[in-house]
From TrEMBL:
Domain 2Fe-2S ferredoxin-type per the UniProt entry, residue ranges: 1-77
Key words of the record: Iron, Metal-binding, Oxidoreductase
Gene3D superfamilies referenced in this protein's UniProt entry, alphabetically: 3.10.20.30, [2Fe-2S]-binding domain
InterPro entries named among the record's database cross-references: 2Fe-2S-bd (IPR002888), 2Fe-2S-bd_dom_sf (IPR036884), 2Fe-2S_ferredoxin-like_sf (IPR036010), 2Fe-2S_ferredoxin-type (IPR001041), 2Fe2S_fd_BS (IPR006058), Aldehyde_Oxdr_Iron-Sulfur (IPR052914), Beta-grasp_dom_sf (IPR012675)
Identification of the protein by name: (2Fe-2S)-binding protein
Pfam families in UniProt: Fer2 (PF00111), Fer2_2 (PF01799)
Length: 169
């Protein structure tokens, strides 16, 4: 089955078995191995990518469902020589140990910051309207779909908080 979409701004066309997940299409067919397969069951968030600006567990989504979509993976954010602000703060804050969850954490944080800017509430928001201050509890709740087996959570939240504060200035 043919499917065409943009990945990190580049047009890509694939001919896939309809059962191939978006994660496997990215990793095995496009050699974009930054997105990780942690559980393959929608439980860890290591495979998080953005699809049309929204975070998606790519292990739970079939590639052929994304005809015409704009997909962003960790490879589309920055480069080793020119890290984007979240990537830089994860380094500065020691927001990882083994690093396996890190691409998913950063992609999820990218989507989460956009959701917060747009006024999407979380389960711990005081109000369902308006924007919420990104407190530690807000960040923890909004990032709760991304597990870190190394338990770098305080440093991950600090990195995200720094970027959120910088964006407000
Ligand atoms: S690999 Fe997709 S959620 Fe774990
Ligand atoms: S840094 Fe090892 S799983 Fe998160």
């Amino acid at each position: 089955m043919k499917v065409s979409f943009h990945v990190n701004g580049e047009a890509r066309a694939l001919d896939l078995d309809p059962r191939v997940t978006l994660l496997d299409a990215l990793r095995d067919h496009l050699q974009l191995t930054g997105s990780k397969k942690g559980c393959d069951h929608g439980q860890c968030g290591a495979c998080t990518v953005l699809v049309d600006g929204r975070r998606v567990n790519s292990c739970l989504s079939l590639a052929v469902m994304h005809e015409g979509s704009e997909i962003t993976t960790i490879e589309g954010l920055g480069t080793p020589e020119n890290l984007n602000p979240l990537q830089q703060e994860f380094v500065s804050c020691d927001g990882y140990q083994c690093g396996y969850c890190t691409p998913g954490q950063i992609m999820s944080a990218t989507g989460m910051l956009a959701e917060a800017r747009e006024g999407a509430p979380s389960h711990v928001s005081d109000s369902l309207t308006g924007t919420s201050e990104l407190t530690d509890a807000e960040i923890a709740e909004r990032m709760s779909g991304n597990l870190c087996r190394c338990s770098a959570y305080p440093f991950i939240r600090e990195a995200i908080s720094r970027v959120a504060e910088a964006e407000e200035k």
